[in-house]
Amino acid sequence: MGVNKISGIAVSAIAKINGKAVSDYTKVMGQTISSTPAAHSPLWVAVGGTKLVYSTDATPTGSWTEITVAGVGSFDDLTFGKNASGTDTWYGCSTSDSKAVAYSTDPTDADSWSTVNPPGAGGGTAIEYGATETLIMGREHENYAIRRSTDYALNWVNSTINGAGNSKATDSLATDGAGKWLAGMGVLGLILKSYDDGINWYKSADLGSDKHIGLEYANGVWVATEEGESINICTDVGENTGTDTWTAINPPVTNRPADAVTHVTASTWMLGATRRNMYISTDNAASWTSVTSLPKYGGGNTNNNAYSLASDGTSIVATGREGYINVSTDLGANWTTVHTMSSNQHMVSVEYNKIKPF
User: Fold this and answer.
1) Which of 5, 24, 204, 244 has its CA 20 to 30 A from that of 63?
2) Residues 119 and 160 occupy one common structural domain
3) Residue 265: CATH number of its domain
């Protein structure tokens, strides 16, 4: 692979070198010039604050590398997608008001992230890329809390929220990849839906708990988790302005679910709960059973709670409170802590480089 940066600047951003077009050169200091970002496949990435940690291993039980990302306020969420050239691109949202969205074609490069500030006030709280090439982002502190981009994060417009009250902070987003979306509005306990690729939003459900809501879609089912409350599933989000039928599933034991959930493969799902408890479903989220808890560290039971989960269909990564990165390769029967953040930074979001749902 050739050099893709000169003096720290991406080749794609340089027009001329010594008065000549970059395209007129084939090498710089003996190295082939390449405008293509570094390719990593597979790639696991987790973020929290200004920290990022990644693994390029197919089975991510080996070493993880952590970096401090330049120019980003504080990551709140992360999603994987493409850019206008079809290049793998990672998009994050930040609690920083002036740098609410960040994106990079090589997240392993701390200096590669660019930022943009969508209209309105408040940092980004959730972001998701859809296979329709649409990005949706939630912002806080506003009546119109959802933004939409169709040009790979460069420009953003307000989505219209219909009949859902003062919908503020968006906790989570999920899409079926065909233009249908859900948004979890934890401040109000609402789930909003859009069936026109994020342009208009309507109430899908009122869970009533006013707790943090986690969302995921795969294999024909939408899964919503309420922090400290029930698990909710829906198999038919209607293309209409009415509410939908959601089924509440009681937590397996008194250690109730948090908001970390991921689809693994076929009808198998994994869920992270309080006190490091983990649960598996093998019937497409209709019922759940306990698996091995995440390892315990320190004097409390919450230091390694799962804040976020990701899977490639075989391995499962759980990023925990206090910066623990845990991996299971046997559907939760065993968990190994493969990395601990040097600053014990909470890692709030982890993703694998494949566009959801898959």
Assistant:
1) 5
2) yes
3) 2.130.10.10
Determine, yes or no, domain membership for 357: no
> What total of structural domains would you count in the chain?
2
Q: Print the domain residue range for 9.
A: 1-36
Residue-wise pLDDT for 92-150, tens only, equals 999 777 788 999 999 999 999 999 988 776 778 899 999 999 999 997 655 558 999 99
Residues 157, 170: contact at Cβ < 8 Å?
A: no
Question: Which residues have C-beta within 8 Å of that of residue 19, sequence separation ≥ 6?
Answer: none
Token representation of residue 48: 């929290």
**pTM of the model as a whole:** 0.89
Tell me if 296 sits within 8 A of 303, measured CB to CB: yes
Residues 261-305 pLDDT 10s: 999 999 999 999 888 999 999 999 999 999 999 999 987 778 899
Kindly state whether residues 243 and 104 are assigned to the same domain: yes
Burial status of residue 295 (CB atoms within 10 A of its CB: 0-12, 13-18, 19 or more): middle
On whether residue 253 sits in a domain, the answer given is: yes
